[in-house]
Structure formats: structure tokens, C-alpha cells
């Protein structure tokens, strides 16, 4: 039987966890950097991003239990997203898909000229 989410917990999909990790990586932050800037423990960041999630999913499948995602404290996610937003990472959703954008200060004009051509803007 699947674990029931407790008050204050949310379930995150692999894709949502991937966006969180991509935001951290876009800023060149380590897991410890994100933990320090958000006020959550580095253990929490590591647990959310860990490969243990894959093992958990495989075990649930073998037991015939429906996977509802990793239960995570909502407050921890809010703290991490807030730290990423303050550093220039934005997460957007229209209900069907989610996107991430990163505001960076760069003098690499050639890169941005190519990027504009590639995305057609």
C-alpha cells in the first residue's frame, strides 16, 4: 500500500525534481550551495535529487504498489525555489507543461546572437 502523504508534504514527479536540479546546475551551485542559500539541510537536497528515488520506484513496481512520487515537505521546496528565484531562475507552468528560465549577466554576445537565430527571436 502506498504511503499516505502527511500534512505539509507534496509528491513530486521525476520531471519536477529534474527542473529543480536543472535550476541549481544553471547557477553552477552544488547541492550544498543550494542548501545553504535556501536554509534546508544538504541532506534534504541530496535526498530529493538522489538515485534512491529510482530504487524506491523499482521496489514499488515489484511489490505492485502504485507510485505517487516522492513525498517531500512543501516548505522545503518553497525555500529552495525561493533561493533559486532570488538568484535569477524562474519556473513557469501553464498547467500542461513547465519551463525554467535563467537570467544571467554575460558579455558573451556571440552566444546570444546565435541563440536568437536558433530560437527565431
TrEMBL record:
InterPro entries: Cro/C1-type_HTH, Lambda_DNA-bd_dom_sf. Gene3D superfamilies: lambda repressor-like DNA-binding domains. Residues 20-63 form the HTH cro/C1-type domain. Transmembrane segments: none annotated. GO terms for molecular function: DNA binding. Pfam families: HTH_3. This is Helix-turn-helix. The lineage of its organism: Bacteria, Pseudomonadati, Pseudomonadota, Alphaproteobacteria, Rhodobacterales.
